Each structure stands twice: as structure tokens, then as C-alpha cells.
Amino acid sequence: GYNNLLSKYIDVELCGHKTTLLRELLFPLTLICICCFLIPHCFAAISLDAQTVRHGFPYQPSSMAHDPVQKILAIGTQSGALRLFGRPGVECYCQHESGAAVISLQFLINEGALVSALADDSVHLWNLRQRRPAILHSLKFNRERITFVHLPFQSKWLYIGTEKGNIHIVNVESFTLSGYVIMWNKAIELSSKAHPGPVVHISDNPMDEGKLIIGYEAGIVVLWDLKSKKADYRYTYDEAIHSVAWHHEGKQFICSHSDGTLTIWNIKGQGKPFQTITPHGKQPKDGKKPEPCKPILKVEYKTTRLGDPFMILSGGLSYDTVGRRPCLTVMHGKSTAVLEMDYPIVDFLTLCETPYSNDFQEPYAVVVLLEKDLVVIDLAQNGYPIFENPYPLTIHESPVTCCEYFADCPVDLIPALYSVGSRQKRQGYSKKEWPISGGNWGLGTQSYPEIIITGHADGTVKFWDASAIMLQVLYKLKTAKVFEKSRNNKEDKQNTEIVDEDPFAIQIMAWCPESRMLCVAGVSANLIIYRFSKQEITTEVLLEVRLQYEVNDMESPPEGGGGGDRDLPTPGAASPSPQTTGPPTHPSTSSNSSDGVRDNVPCLKVRSTPLKQSSGYQVELVVQLVWVSGEPPQQITSLALNSSYGLIVFGNSNGLAVVDYLQKTVLLNLGTVELYGSNDPYQRQARSPRKARQPAGGNGKDLYHFTDLPPHRYMLELCVFSTCVRVLYLSVLSSTVLLSVCPPRGANPLDHRDNSFSRSRSSSVTSIDKEAREAITSFHFCETFARKGDSAITPCLYVGTSLGTVLAVALNLPPAGEQRLLQPVIVLPSGTLARLKGSILRMAFLDNTGTFLPPAFETWYEPNAAGADSEERDKARKRRPVSVSPSTSQELQESQYAVVCSEKQAKVIALPSQNCIFKHSITETSFVLRADVVQMNIGNCVACFCANGHIMTLSLPGLRPLLDVNYLPLTDMRIARTFCFTNLGQAMYLTSPTEIQRITYSQETCENLQEMLGELFTPVETPEAPNRGFFKGLFGGGATSLDREELFGETQAGKASRGLAQHIPGPQGLEGMKGAASGVVADLARARIALDERGQKLGELDERTAAMLASADSFGKHAHDMMLKCKDKKWYQF
């Protein structure tokens, strides 16, 4: 782009090499040098280590465990993930490499370790004493399938039950198998011919560690004596067993069965259960057996010192309760409480005051793991209220449809959102503190505010505080309450025909953090603009401001003609009487016109009753696309908001519309083809429009007419083309209004990209079908040069299309203050800036120093202020909007640089000359899904996420590759729809329907990440064991211990079968910890590890030296004794 520059040459020295360059090349080359030598050090290779944190509910949970001393909770999932929770803000995510489902979890209580058993028959030992837990040992079973795992408190011997009915014992310190095996055929009756089934339960007697109870699926329970290696008692029931629980005295146990019954057994009972209970079964009067119920999947039996015991169970409902939600039953004394859950129960645990099973448990809460929620129930209060969950587990409360990520927000924004969001909290929660309170927060120094916004299928928008790798909900906005709820009649279903379900789902969001203006676009082709206020208001009526146009058939243009003249008449000129030509004051909402075709009907109906708007985001304006001659409106594909200009622009597969939300008018409503004017490079001919209906009150011969509106309030734009004439009707009825926008005609809807990623991404523009389907894909407001060769910057709107074209639209804004509300805004298309391969995804602007130029914005003010606050509001309105555009008196020839990124390539264009100075092909075999211009600590870059899973960054303005990592293969549309970059090297995406994954490509964040992560393990003293008492000690009562080391050790039990399981050492220990940390903490850890290793080696050396010294002393003593013995002997005496 500099071949035509005629400037003198200058000598420069670059990295020790002298060369001669054009003067105009010096500035871009300097920036390239900065990008080459400085910016790469800001980027970290993206890998699993670059995944900062994962938020949300664990997707498809399968198991759960709790450490009652450390007070931390672990949840395993069907995909092999492991989520650990401590106090609010302390979370951790781990992943098993195999991806197999986690079937069981067991804490080494107060030891900082966790055992996980997977569906691929592997067992793993996790070290929780480091900020990022990792596997210490693994054991892979080859011959048997694992079904149950049990680890007694303060024991290092792990019991593993298998599908064959055998029980193996593993030493958790060395993760080696013991030779002690309990075979199924020795456990059951010798006379039994049937296999007892898989092991479903293992636990030791609370009062005798030498007695082990084993539950088999077929209904057999065995009390096994570990010392004598034989079964003491066997208990048989004719229904399958699902779980077993002990009474703390060790004299009774309870079983849950598949027919909905509970059986209580005495350990010395003979044949029959002591008691049989059917909690939800109807008791027949004739004394017969109750009707069978659904299986009781789990039961827990917990005792209290001063009251009745608790029996807590899941399942067991009667079969006649069809459609009833899953329930947890709490039986306490004579009372039975049935607690309904929103989702099926996966598992539950009872939290108790003591970790010892041989003492009164004193239960105080129940943790219930549901398929899509985590509920904690307070057992100590009447009515069993639930605790308010402090974790960010409600991301999926309604499916996430879109999200945005903002870093380095204004510092007052999070407190403002929190203050209005705190008033939305529900009541009726338990008054106690959250019981899972283990771990410590991180001590990171990253303190800039971060906000994540999620849009949902039910029309809600949630704001989340994402600062310092934490996540907390701030505020929840319900957009659906603006509309009337549809009645289940045929007419309403026809109106919302463009969407099968979730008509209020959020599709796109645009947010200005500085002004706090928000705009959301829904799938029903609707747009809602919100303004933030701390005061509550009530909107009396929501009525319509309607925009219509009529299309008349005219002759097709001659070949090569692309359009006609465009002029802006004076408002009110040539206006006939409003009584004869104006639209009705209250527009009809009928879905059909006189000829039976739906016309001028929106997909949703706005509420006509008074709407109470609480503090927070309040409706400013509603815009809807409407049906036209039986054709439904196309969904909105792109959206942009500018608070400084007071404008909203949105586009779809047909064209775009610019709306002035301050004056509540539509400034521009054009098809994509019409944006080109006579400069259309594809020489497309407009499709023949349908014959229009006669305008109201007209004779059919008038080409256009206007309603009589005050000229100082609105501007009406007449768009005259050689093919059609559009007539706009506007009628103002309220300060809070609805704009109904008729979409431009003459284009087919864009094919849905969500269906497949195998679509062709050809950049060819020869296809007539593709040309006819040119959609609007992106917008960017800026203050720049509207046309080539301009000498002054003006407010502009840049438009990107699906064919790779960037078009400029000039904006002529009135002065700020009252004039802005009275004078019209002039909008005028200004030609084409550039063309790229693929759809345009992102546009941005840099000044002549390479500094990013954000769009102008207006600072926030209270819109509902009164009195003194009202004066402040008026002053804020009269202030000029904040703009960081450079002054117009730039001495350099090129004052700005436009950055444009498409699905295939990126370009940097110098302005106002519009010369392309840098160009880079991002991908040839794939296409870019998301691209953003992000600001790093020492520069700017273009960040791209491709459909092939690559994450790339390019320097600015040189477009040199800085990072290219194959991070994540694209497996579903969710990732593509939700992936987004933000400033300072942060990014996020929805890794599952319930979880947000945050990643970083910033080296600085990676170095500080170790300090920012919370600690799961904290030094806590183990509670004292229960006192046996004088009489129990005197007469031999109380708990008896067992020397498991002697019983299960290799000396007595022998070695295990060599091919039964394979031991896999983990990467941890001193060697594995070297790579587990980073930053300052990592350096200290590595230094400490090196000192430990050196000390260990020196200690070993000292021991060897001492051994050698002792050996030398012994040798010297023996030699001296020999010398004394032989001193007086003659030679012949030897």
C-alpha cells in the first residue's frame, strides 16, 4: 500500500542492522517491531493449564462425597469430571483423562486426599493439599468390574466390591493390592446354588472393626469376620437390596429394597427382619402385605443424643403417584416429611457433627444432589427449610442462548448492579450459615472488574460478577414480562409461528458499560432497549409507534442500473389531511387482513396494562419486526448500540434499520442491496415486489403520502428508487413506545448456520443465489472518515455483510442537549470501504499511534431523578459525549487505521486514503467463528477462534501471528454460540449446558493464577474419639479396634494375584509438584522442593557416612581384639 508514496528516504537502525526506508513506512514498522518483540511475551500457550476456572453446576453428576472435618464437598460426573466445593468462592475442577463416569468417591477424612472409582474399573488417589489437585496413584482392574468402594475413617485400607461379588483390599498409601480377598462363594451359604449378584454395600461395624457387613444385590447380607475369614451371620430377603445403613451402636442395621420397603435387622437375628416398613405404601386392613412401591434407592439412619433418630431415604413412592416429582423422605419419630425436588435425585448425604460412626451422629443437614441442582436441607429447623446456595449453580436455570464477557469495567458498575439485585432475593431460606465452609480464598493481585452477561431461553438476562476468577450473580432481568402471555388458541400460535418454542429466548445482546444502556434481541424478531435506574417507576401504558411501508410495482431497472436518487424531504411537506390518510390511532392487532393474509402483525403482543418496573433495568423502547403480506419477519442477526449517539442499529438476512431511541423514530430501513446504491459490485436486479394494497383513504394513484406530524419532533425519510416507493406512517401515543418495523423485501432468508458446520464457506461471489441472500452480520459505531479523502472525522456507522463487504453510513447528529431531542438525525450511506473473503465478523479502529479507539459513549446518569438530582441529570445530558477520537489537525497523512476481520482473513486499512496496508489469511481449510479486537497490557491484538478448534492472535496493526494453538475441537454448536474474548487476555465459553469454562491466553494471568486459586485443604485438628465410659471399659463394652496392618499386610495375607490389577504411578510427589505451580509461588515452591531434595540427599549421605563409620569402628574393635589375643602367642601356636 506504500508503493505510490513519494517521500524522501531515511536511515534507520533496527536490532543492530542499518537499512534505508521510506519515511511513511517508519511508523507501521515500529509498531510491527513492538508486536514482534514485546507482545509475544504477553501470551501463554493455551492448554489445560490455561483453563482458569469452571463455573456452574457439574454436568450429569453421578456421585458425591463429603469430608466432615475439612467441610468440603466433591461431586463426580458421567464424563469423568471432578468438582470440589469449599466455602463460597473456593471451587476446583479436575478431570480424569479416561473420561469414564465417576461411580464412587471416598475422602480420606482430614488427610487432604480423595479416592475416586470410575466406570472403567480404575481407582485413583487425588492429592488435595495443592491448589490444583492431581493424581498420586492409580490402580486399573483387569478382570473384575468395580461396583462399590468403602474406606473406613482413619484407615489406610480401602475395600473394593466387584460385579462378581468379590471384595479386594487396597493399601491407599502404596496403592497396592493385599492378598486378603473375600470370595463370594465363601461369603454365602454353601447350599446356595444362585450367584448373590454384585456387591452393593460394604461397611464395618461401628463397634467392631473386625466385623464387615456385605450387601449383595440379590437380597443377601453377610456379616463377615475379618480375623476368622468366615461369615458369622447371613440375612436373606426376597427383594433386591439397594443400600444398607448401620445404627451407631452396631447392634442393628437397615436395608432398602426394590419394592419400596425398609427392613431393620438385629445382627444376631435369626432369619427374619426385626421390623419391616413401607414408608409410602398403603397398609391393607386385612393385614396383608402392602402394595409394592418404587425402589428405595438409598437410606441413611442417623441417631441423636436427645431425640428420635432420623431415617432419610430417596425413592419409595407409590406407583399410583404418576407425574409426581422426585421426593426425599425424612422420618423423624412419628413425623414423616416428604420433600419434593425439581429434578431426579442422584445421591444424598447427611451432614453430622462427628466423623465417628460409633457415636451419636447428631445430623444437622442433608445435601441432596439432583440431576440439575444441589440442595442443602436444614434438619434443625421446623419445616426443613433449605439453605440459600451461594455457589453459581443457576447458570442453566433456563438454557443459555448467548453470553458476553466484559473485562476492566467501570469500578462503580458491580456495586450498582449488586444493590438492585440484592432486592430480588427470595425469602424463606434457613437462617444458618452455609454448612460447606472449608478451604481458604486465594490471594491474587488481579483486581480489575469483570462482568459476564448470559441470555436465556425464557427471556431472562443475568449479570454475573466474574472478578478474580470467581462468579456471583448480581442481577436478573426478566424481559418476557414486557409481553403478554400467549393463550393456547390457534390464532396466537399462528402469530408466533416463526419459533416452535421459547418465543422469548434472547438471541443477541448489546451493552454499554459506561452508560449502562442495554439492548436485547429475541428470536421472535423483537428488540427491547433498557435504561438503568435506581428508582422504581410504573409505566401507565405501553402503546405503539408504528412504521409501515407500501410497495408499488414499477418497471425493472435497465441492465446495469442499481438504484436511483435519494433525497430527504422536509418533514410535513406534501402531507395530506391526517383524517383521511393517517393510520388508525389504535392499530389493529388482528393477524389477518381483509384478504385472509397475515399482515402488519408482530410475533408477540406488548402488554397494555400498567407495568411496574423495579429499580434496575427499565424498558425504554420496544421494537418489533412484523408480518408483511403473509411473510414472517426474519430473525435479527446483528445488533449494535451507541449511547453517545442515542442510536440502535440491527440487521437481518434482508437488511438493516437504524432507530433513534431518544426521539423514538426509525431513521433508516433499507435492504442490503439498497445500501450499495448505484455502486453495487454484483449488479443484482431487485426482485419484483408484490402488488401493494391500496393505501387507506387513497385512490390508488398516489405514489406516496405522509401523515401530518410536527416537523420539530420527527424526521420522515422518503426512499425513492426506480423499483418501489415506500411510505412511512408514524403515530406517537406514549412516552414508552413500541416500534413495529416492517422488514425490507426482495431477499430470501439466510440459511440457518446452526444446523451444520460442514457447510461450504466459499468466498465466491458469482452465485446469484448467494448475492440475493446477503445478510447483515456486524456493525461498528465510530468517529472516523466517512468517505475516501475526507479531511475531518464525523460520526459513522460501519456495516459488515455476509459477502465480506464493509459499508460506511454517515451520521449527522444535532448538538447535544435539548437540540438533540428536537432536531432530526440525518443518516446517509457513504459507499464501500473494503471487501474480504467470508462474512464480516468484527471491525475496530486505531489512531495513528496504534491505540485502540473505542466508540464514543455517554456516562450514566439517573433517568428518573427529581429535584437536585434532576439538575445533575440535565447537566449530564448537555455534556458532550465522551469520545477518544483524535483531533482533526493530524499532520500525518494517515490519521486512523480500520481493522476488519472476516471468517477467512483480516485487513488493516489506512484512513482516509482507504489503502489496505496489511492483510493476513487466517485460515483456508476452516473458518473463524468468533473474532474480537482485544486490548492487552502493552498493546492490542486480534483474537480469533476457528471452527477447527484453533485459537489465534494477530498483532496490530501488522497482523503478524502471535499465537496459534489447537485448543478445543468444536463438538457442538453451543461452544460456537457462546465463545467470546475480552480484554486483558481472557475468554470464556459454555463447555456444557450447565457450565462456563474460562480460559486465559495472557502470560501474566497464568503466572498469577496459582496465587488466585483457593486452597481446599487447611490444617484442622481431628475431633477426639467418643469416650467409652467407665462401665464399658470395665466390662469390655464399646468399640473394639483391629490391627488391619497385620491382617492385610503381605506377611500374613501374602501377595495379590499379579494379573488382577495394574498399578499406575501418578505424576505427583516431589517431581510432579514442580509443574503444578507458577509465578512467585512456583519459584518458592520449586526452591523449597529443591531444598527438600537436597536435605533428603544430605540426610541419606549422613546416614551412609554414619553406617560406614560404625562399620569402621566395629572393624577396628575386632582387629584390636584379635591383636590382643594373638599378642603373646608363638608362631607355632597359630
TrEMBL record:
Residues 575-594 have a biased composition (Low complexity). PROSITE patterns: V_SNARE, WD_REPEATS_1, WD_REPEATS_2. It is a peripheral membrane protein. Residues 553-601, 679-700, 866-889 are annotated as: Disordered. Gene3D superfamilies: 1.20.5.110, YVTN repeat-like/Quinoprotein amine dehydrogenase. SUPFAM superfamilies: SNARE fusion complex, WD40 repeat-like. This is Syntaxin-binding protein 5-like. It comes from Oncorhynchus tshawytscha (Chinook salmon).
